[in-house]
């Protein structure tokens, strides 16, 4: 593994950082999340159309840049630094790669260029709280798609006077970017008990929502991540790909890339919180001297810095592992590295945000202060993607760390030890 970034990667990082530093001050972030879309549409056009971030990891044949997970992680690290509200995560990380990997030639030709240009945004619709298990980050079950009346989506093939085709029923909460996305990828349970499977369906809403589709933006702890409730009442849909076979494996294979990118974003947010805290303690005086000169404050910030650097290294390694040729992205090293990197990134963000609130003193405890943007992101991400202990438990399960096996002579031994 070459740990040095290329000149092109460094230039991309600098370009994104400089643009976001000019356009994403805390007050601008707070104003952007109040818009109906939940983000600054002009900034989105710049990021997607001029910088190509929406198609950064898509093939050039479809208008993308043709980069890999590492470049995507670098861009998201800078987005996390300023807590950028945008459809970049739901479009470039969740929806577009699944369409590129599983869609038919016609579906790719029709939709991917629009996603790459930013003219169309996407969202992955899974039941509330099921995003992390669906990607294989906190579980490996295949029964999360159809949650019955408590949530979830069912698909059924209908024939009759209304036409022949697939219909979707049910609802999903906490859909990232789901209220404004022009393309929905819906994970739905079908086949009944006899042939139970989870399939993916396309809903093209660019020209307006079809009859029976109701989308409502939900109030969220972290307003920089817009989430929605998506309700489906006999909505016609098109299967993603050539069939309605089980897509759980494909979703889990996408997990390592998603985890690596989210880990890098969490690292960027932690770095942003730490930078703001360091700047504050250098200027805030107590007893006639900056509070940053006190040894106790220095030690606390040093601990955050060490944890942050470890999380950054883990995120970069996970991004490299996700694109390594021949890697097992369902249950191998790439999946384990991604889950652990995300756990470490979320933990570093939680620590950095807590120290930012504490070391800013009384002003840090007010909801209006920028420190609370990072605090809310830390809490919201762990609710949506974690918790941390489940991410680590899933990684330990993959590595069989706590699995006892019977050795020679009936002796019980740990995996990897001599019999």
From TrEMBL:
The keyword Hydrolase does not apply. Coiled coil: none annotated. It comes from the Bacteria. Residues 261-398 form the Acyl-CoA dehydrogenase/oxidase C-terminal domain. InterPro entries: Acyl-CoA_Oxase/DH_mid-dom_sf, AcylCo_DH-like_C, AcylCo_DH/oxidase_C, AcylCoA_DH/ox_N, AcylCoA_DH/ox_N_sf, AcylCoA_DH/oxidase_NM_dom_sf. Keywords: FAD, Flavoprotein, Oxidoreductase. The keyword RNA-binding does not apply. Residues 6-118 form the Acyl-CoA dehydrogenase/oxidase N-terminal domain. Its cofactor is FAD. PANTHER family: ACYL-COA DEHYDROGENASE, ACYL-COA DEHYDROGENASE FADE28. Belongs to the acyl-CoA dehydrogenase family. This is Acyl-CoA/acyl-ACP dehydrogenase. It comes from Streptomyces oryzae.
């Amino acid at each position: 593994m070459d740990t040095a970034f290329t000149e092109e990667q460094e230039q991309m990082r600098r370009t994104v950082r400089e643009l976001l530093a000019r356009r994403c001050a805390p007050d601008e972030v707070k104003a952007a999340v109040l818009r109906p879309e939940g983000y600054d549409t002009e900034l989105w056009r710049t990021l997607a159309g001029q910088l190509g971030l929406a198609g950064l990891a898509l093939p050039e044949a479809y208008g993308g840049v043709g980069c890999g997970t590492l470049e995507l992680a670098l861009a998201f690290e800078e987005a996390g630094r300023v807590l950028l509200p945008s459809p970049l995560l739901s479009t470039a990380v969740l929806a577009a790669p699944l369409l590129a990997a599983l869609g038919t030639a016609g579906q790719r030709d029709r939709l991917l260029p629009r996603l790459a240009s930013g003219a169309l945004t996407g969202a992955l619709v899974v039941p509330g709280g099921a995003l992390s298990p669906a990607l294989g980050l906190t579980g490996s079950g295949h029964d999360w798609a159809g949650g019955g009346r408590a949530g979830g989506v069912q698909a059924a093939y209908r024939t009759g006077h209304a036409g022949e085709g697939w219909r979707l029923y049910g609802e999903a909460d906490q859909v990232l970017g789901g209220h404004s996305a022009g393309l929905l990828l819906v994970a739905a349970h079908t086949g009944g008990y006899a042939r139970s499977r989870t399939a993916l369906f396309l809903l093209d809403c660019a020209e307006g929502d079809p009859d029976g589709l109701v989308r409502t933006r939900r109030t969220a702890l972290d307003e920089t991540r817009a989430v929605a409730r998506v309700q489906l009442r006999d909505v016609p849909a098109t299967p993603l790909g050539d069939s309605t076979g089980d897509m759980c494996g494909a979703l889990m294979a996408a997990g390592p890339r998603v985890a690596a990118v989210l880990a890098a974003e969490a690292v960027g947010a932690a770095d942003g919180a730490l930078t703001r805290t360091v700047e504050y303690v250098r200027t805030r005086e107590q007893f006639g001297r900056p509070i940053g000169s006190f040894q106790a404050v220095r030690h606390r910030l040093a601990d955050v810095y060490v944890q942050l650097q470890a999380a950054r290294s883990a995120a970069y390694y996970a991004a490299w592992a996700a694109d390594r040729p021949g890697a097992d992205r369902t249950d191998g090293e790439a999946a384990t590295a991604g889950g652990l990197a995300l756990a470490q990134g979320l933990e570093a963000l939680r620590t950095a945000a807590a120290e930012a609130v504490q070391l800013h003193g009384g002003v840090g405890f007010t909801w209006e202060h920028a420190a609370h943007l990072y605090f809310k992101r830390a809490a919201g991400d762990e609710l949506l993607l974690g918790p941390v202990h489940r991410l680590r438990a899933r990684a330990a399960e993959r590595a069989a760390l706590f699995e006892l096996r019977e050795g020679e002579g009936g002796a019980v031994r740990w995996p990897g030890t001599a019999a």
